[in-house]
């Protein structure tokens, strides 16, 4: 089935904008905490919101990641202490009201993300940029919940955020040039590289990556080759740093399943459909590294 991508009003982003001084982030999981760490290390004040029952875990995740960076010689103790001092953890969404940019980084669930985006639209200033870290949901689907939807943009980071330098900036139909300019400036402040993409499920990276990963799962499911040989084949033969099944475990099978469903819903192509084996593994709690077992044991 063919897919038509509507052209935004403008595809050109202005060169620069006023630097972000305060960023608000909703969701303190691996992605949200990683974005917070990158921003705080870049000298930006961070307000990180998480549900009360998960705040302690978010704090541990954030501080442990900084400590690992110090031990590896990537940062020093002064960097770590300054990043911690710049970061405020809260369970109150209203505490994000003063941020010039807010980013939702909650799980890949369209209903949940839409609810968060709508709430943020009623809290932050009218000229504040509202971004989603979704990895697959079209931004227009989320922007409809926000008044002044021209200030909504996709900012798709990659895991682990402190290490991965790419950010996809996603321009929806109504996204303004000023919003895109702000997004580019923020990414530059973080010391990361941006690519700009039009608004469709999967954007650039996951649109290309998911068929490859699902092909590997099907190959293993059909007993065409062992998991080790599939992964070694792509590492040694294609120069990939990690094999596809190990990468599935790293990302998380539940996350991949949600991305697959989003892509399949939009494009109706079999290459995006999650294989039956993946569904059974998720039902059994074998989500990958996060659960201690996926295609491999950890």
Automatic annotation (TrEMBL):
GO biological process, one term: fatty acid beta-oxidation
Site features described as Important for catalytic activity, chain residue numbers: 156
Record bears the keyword Oxidoreductase: yes
GO molecular function: 3-hydroxybutyryl-CoA dehydrogenase activity; NAD+ binding
InterPro entries: 3-OHacyl-CoA_DH, 3-OHacyl-CoA_DH_NAD-bd, 3HC_DH_C, 6-PGluconate_DH-like_C_sf, 6PGD_dom2, NAD(P)-bd_dom_sf
3-hydroxyacyl-CoA dehydrogenase NAD binding domain mapped to chain residues: 22-199
Alphabetical keyword list: Oxidoreductase
Domain 3-hydroxyacyl-CoA dehydrogenase C-terminal: 202-298
One of the Pfam families matching this protein, by short name: 3HCDH
Pathway note: Lipid metabolism; butanoate metabolism
Keyword Oxidoreductase applies: yes
SUPFAM superfamilies, per the entry: 6-phosphogluconate dehydrogenase C-terminal domain-like, NAD(P)-binding Rossmann-fold domains
Family: Belongs to the 3-hydroxyacyl-CoA dehydrogenase family.
The protein's name: 3-hydroxybutyryl-CoA dehydrogenase
Organism the protein comes from: Solirubrobacter ginsenosidimutans
């Amino acid at each position: 089935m063919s897919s038509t991508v509507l052209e935004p009003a403008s595809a050109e982003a202005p060169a620069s904008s006023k630097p972000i001084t305060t960023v608000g982030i909703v969701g303190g999981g691996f992605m949200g905490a990683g974005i917070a760490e990158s921003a705080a290390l870049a000298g930006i004040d961070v307000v990180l919101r998480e549900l009360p029952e998960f705040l302690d875990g978010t704090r541990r995740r954030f501080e442990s990641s900084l400590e690992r960076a110090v031990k590896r010689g990537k940062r020093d103790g002064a960097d770590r202490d300054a990043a911690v001092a710049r970061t405020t953890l809260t369970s109150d969404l209203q505490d994000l009201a003063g941020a010039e940019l807010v980013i939702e980084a909650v799980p890949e669930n369209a209903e949940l993300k839409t609810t968060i985006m709508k709430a943020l639209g009623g809290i932050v200033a009218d000229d504040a940029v509202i971004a989603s870290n979704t990895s697959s949901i079209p931004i227009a689907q989320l922007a409809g919940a926000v008044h002044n939807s021209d200030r909504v943009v996709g900012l798709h980071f990659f895991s682990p955020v402190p290490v991965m330098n790419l950010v996809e900036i996603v321009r929806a139909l109504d996204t303004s040039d000023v919003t895109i300019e702000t997004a580019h400036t923020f990414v530059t402040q973080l010391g990361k590289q941006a690519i700009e993409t039009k608004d469709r499920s999967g954007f650039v990276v996951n649109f290309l990556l998911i068929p490859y990963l699902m092909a590997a799962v099907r190959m293993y499911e059909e007993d065409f080759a062992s998991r080790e040989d599939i992964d070694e084949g792509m590492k040694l033969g294609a120069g990939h740093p990690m094999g596809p099944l190990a990468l599935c475990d790293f990302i998380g099978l539940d996350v991949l399943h949600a991305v697959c469903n989003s892509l399949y819903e939009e494009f109706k192509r079999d290459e995006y459909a999650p294989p039956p084996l993946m569904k059974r593994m998720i039902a059994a709690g074998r989500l990958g590294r996060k659960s201690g077992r996926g295609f491999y044991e950890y």
